[in-house]
Write a structure and sequence with these properties.
The structure is a homodimer of 392-residue chains.
Chain A: E1 17-18, H1 28-34, H2 44-61, E2 67-71, H3 75-86, E3 92-97, H4 100-111, E4 115-120, H5 129-139, E5 143-147, E6 149-150, E7 155-156, H6 160-168, E8 172-176, H7 188-191, E9 195-197, E10 211-215, H8 217-224, H9 237-244, H10 255-271, H11 273-293, E11 310-314, H12 321-332, E12 334-335, E13 337-338, E14 347-351, H13 359-375, H14 384-389
Parallel strand pairs in A: 1-12, 3-4, 3-5, 5-8, 8-9
Antiparallel strand pairs in A: 2-10, 6-7, 9-10, 11-14, 13-14
Helix pairs in contact in A: 1-10, 2-10, 5-6, 10-11, 11-13, 12-13
Chain lengths: 392, 392
Amino acid sequence: MNSAIERYAPLCAPTRLLFGPGPSPVSPRVYQAMQQNVVGHLDPFFFQVADEIRTLLGYAYSTANTFNLVASGTGSSGMELAVANFTEPGSKFAVLSNGYFADRIGEMAARQGAQVVRLTQDWGRPFDAGQAREFVLRERPRIVAMVQAETSTGVYNQVQAAAEAAHEVDALVIADCVTSLGGMPVLVDSNGIDIAYSCTQKGLGCPPGLAPVTVSPRALDRLKKRATPVQSWYLDLQLLDAYYSGHKYHHTASATLFYALREGLVMVAEEGRENRWARHQRNHRAFVAGIEAMGLRMLVEHPGDRLWTLNTVSVPEGVNEAAVRQYLLEKRSIEIAGGFGPLAGKIFRIGLMGYGSSAENVMLVLEALAEALRHAGFEPKGNGLAAAEGKL
Amino acid sequence: MNSAIERYAPLCAPTRLLFGPGPSPVSPRVYQAMQQNVVGHLDPFFFQVADEIRTLLGYAYSTANTFNLVASGTGSSGMELAVANFTEPGSKFAVLSNGYFADRIGEMAARQGAQVVRLTQDWGRPFDAGQAREFVLRERPRIVAMVQAETSTGVYNQVQAAAEAAHEVDALVIADCVTSLGGMPVLVDSNGIDIAYSCTQKGLGCPPGLAPVTVSPRALDRLKKRATPVQSWYLDLQLLDAYYSGHKYHHTASATLFYALREGLVMVAEEGRENRWARHQRNHRAFVAGIEAMGLRMLVEHPGDRLWTLNTVSVPEGVNEAAVRQYLLEKRSIEIAGGFGPLAGKIFRIGLMGYGSSAENVMLVLEALAEALRHAGFEPKGNGLAAAEGKL
């Protein structure tokens, strides 16, 4: 060994209880799948796995689309793929923005040379369907983008009204489903979504590293009529399709991550997507009951606007949000997250998703949160655990 | 389970012997590292691993650079990162092209709006140092890009002459080190490389999924002076640096892949990079001795121009290249690769790299290749195994 390099101790990762906005706890079955032998990115077995993922993704996304594939990057690369492939310089690109991730879509579209127009709403509040519709009909953009599950605020945005208006003006609909896929209904077809992307490390219970995408036939038509090449070669959907469908070399996809994703998606199919959504809903409602019994408030006012995967809890007056998170991490090895942007210091973001959405975890995180809040000087008003248990 | 979804059998990956151009065989230590618990992308432990990777990458790349980081995509995303961050619309971008991957760099630069100029050389032949120098001095580009280890042809391109000329005209030097890092000298600093990128699944013996990058101080200066934003948000180096160095959220990096890369890099440090290069060189030379003893010819004429990681062997007259590969895959579960572009059907590409570069594997692949060639009607002239053994 070169003397310039110190000796490295064996890797020894802590056992975190992952109750943040993702990564969520990884299922033991997924860890096992990743131990299987790596095969080449052009191996017949690799393409068999990619084809299974194509079918399983259609099921998870509730779509009849067959153009379902995976970008070799995290969920953020899925966002860039969606924006880059369907934007041309000067395209009018409409964003419905009520959180950080919608803002990021706008930022990406601007970098791609689009003319970005925005309908904004306060962080933590959903859009009014009528306003969304009016905005789209007035702007007549080429693309309408929105975030179905806004990870920065915990809001579930209804896609349908904006999507209907988008189709009336021949705009494509991009929906960020990073925190909905595998945990609550995405409903690509019935919502009129043309391009949906997600990640692997939230509702699907896999490690991060891939971005599952689905594309509608009308979006494909638009893609084929592009006047300019997609600026990103790496995320060019037509090259990716030639790879996954035509077996023509593009990049070296990671067999290990594909094995993990296949296993995560098989678990969705075995449980049944509707059962899985019901599990997430039940555990979310129990968590909320516990939170409210403790005298805390959810950021998102109306129950129907809340994500079942990620709960946003307002930080009580006088409590140092960062100190609570630090306590949980250091004393309990629990990860939760704070807010950012206008919500910095004001909310806790607590995820119960994928393999991690269980009755035991609802109780565990409520109990630990109560302990950390007491340590920060806030005495819970009532018994959160009893209230939660009544809903489980 | 939804009745629309068939029941999926447990994943059962075949055990491939990976002697193609990558992925290479993954070390058991790396598989073990990937079993460790996923932590969050903002966890103190994650940043500790990222910092260790920063140091270890400096060692593997032979550089004093401290701007060493990892893009969350495959080696091809590293190429796109290098091109996108250092190209502005209209930038003059010079490519030294003697293979597929150099052509791809040119394609990416064109998509980024660069004015691409090319010095071309036949596939399988290196550049003349004087011609490379003259080209750069004549064109006076902003960027000079070349492929140190051309995976499509097996040529090791000397970087130094072009890099010296580039520095004289204040151009930055991008070098593709995808098939050199961890297997042969990259020598970022002494070669005058400003931006180097690589992958994880070749000389480092990890699964694919990350792109390790190093950036020189003068390249960073150029980056900070950009007049336009980088078109790719996902691969924006300044945002990535704010994440890895400043711990400011950007994307959800994959702890699992970082654990794997750390383990692969620790193994480079433990072995010593010079010892590791010597191992690759020895096994490569033994392989070549075996090939030549069998009456086959290497595509790359001069030994000093050959990669030690990836061997390109000319397909003998009358032999169906695809049939040989199919035989090896089906009868021996061995992956090797063919050529593409002008070399389609004309070469075998046989990798011995990372964990896979061993004396045992040299013997195994020579023996299996002789068997497959016989099956395809080619009788080896002499005893390749004996010739190889003499060099091991």
